[in-house]
Design goal:
about 5% helix, 1 helix
Length: about 140
């Protein structure tokens, strides 16, 4: 589990903390699998993607002929990444809202992760955030 900032109170009493923008960005950059959601032509969709967060944007590849091909957009989306540790009852979640749009293959040193799903994944989608928020939570520890 990724450790987050120092603004979290002692674990013994539990906490629910809003994360700063910098903390959200750090957590997004430190992971590579998230979920993108949008109102598709087939109804609400929430699907996992292998992604790269760079320069404040989120990049991933998909199949142009799948339902995710709609993300060539522009289309309003939400993107979420989290890390949960059930054993310690701790975790965090980052939610990005913004616009998805097809983009040319990012150049330079950006290397998108290989999608887990098999097949043709030649459509590169970029999400440009309009808002970003995050939360960290820890349950109060019960006495033994």
């Amino acid at each position: 589990m990724t450790h987050i900032g120092t603004n979290i109170r002692a674990m013994d009493s539990g906490h629910f903390t809003r994360l700063s923008g910098d903390e959200c960005g750090h957590l997004l950059r430190g992971h590579s699998v998230g979920r993108v959601s949008w109102a598709s032509s087939r109804g609400l969709q929430v699907l996992p993607v292998s992604y790269l967060s760079s320069g404040g944007r989120i990049y991933f590849r998909t199949n142009r002929d799948s339902v995710m091909g709609e993300l060539a957009g522009p289309v309003e989306v939400a993107f979420e990444v989290d890390d949960i540790d059930v054993t310690t009852a701790t975790g965090w979640s980052v939610l990005v809202q913004g616009e998805a749009l097809a983009c040319e293959e990012p150049g330079g040193e950006l290397r998108l992760p290989e999608p887990w799903a098999p097949g043709d994944r030649t459509l590169t989608v970029v999400i440009t955030p309009s808002t970003c928020s995050g939360r960290a939570v820890s349950a109060a520890h019960q006495g033994s």
